[in-house]
Amino acid sequence: MRRHLPPLAAVRAFEAAARLGSFTKAGEELGATQAAISYQIKLLEERVGTPLFLRLPRQVVPTEAGRRLAAAVSEAFDLLQAAFASFRQETESVLAISSVPSFAVRWLAPRLGAFQLAHPSLAVRLTTANRLVDFAREEVDAAIRSGRGDWPGLEAHPLLRVTFTPMCSPDFLQRTGSVDSPAALLRLPLLSPTDRWWRRWFALAGVEAPVLDGRGAIGLDSQPLEGSAALAGQGVAMLTPELWRDELRAGRLVQLFDLVGDEGHHYWLVYPKVLRRLPKIRALRDWLLVEAERYAAELSGAMASAPPKE
Question: HTH lysR-type domain location, by residue (predicted)?
Answer without folding.
Answer: 6-63
